[in-house]
Predict the structure of TetR/AcrR family transcriptional regulator.
Amino acid sequence: MARSPRVYGGETADERTARRRQQLIDAARELLRTEGWGATSMRSVCAKAGLGDRYFYESFRDRDALLSAVFDEIERDAVERVGRALVAAGEVQPARASAAIGALIELIEDDAATRRALFETPDSQAIHTHRRRALRTFAVLVAGELGATAPGKADEVDRELTAHALIGAFQELLTAATEGEIAVPRERLIAHAAAITGAVARVSSR
């Protein structure tokens, strides 16, 4: 007969490990939000989480592994938020494109951790790789909406190229807005970004 997991303080060993791992991720995410990538060292994260070094290595082989887990969580939250906005928008275009853009802009403006994750230059090659992957995820999502918005001459390649170009444009636009270089209401920022999307949706290189 298999032995039941040993329970201590109402938790199994695996549950305690998972809880400590999430504590470290939460601490790193808070440090990212308040101070940036450079402040998220192993020691500062452990101090923020109230855990000893040994618990860090219980879940992560090094700092890059922790930062990758933080980025994965931020990316997942962003994709889920955009997904909920698309569901709420229904099937009508251009409402869906506006909803997706609006959800992402609101998240980036409201959450400094997401903003820094996507825009701040990290001191980690692992995070650079993760960010490129995340931007491609969003590019593919935008490309899908572009396909529904403008099913004319633009083909799948055109839509993906346009999506990547839009992400670069939005990054500059949002950086200027969040750093105070331009001052416009959020609603107008979202409307302008949606208008740009609509304007380039039919661009074709064929």
Notes: The chain has nine helices and two strands. The longest helix spans residues 63-89. The radius of gyration is 20 Å. The beta strands are 7-8, 11-12.
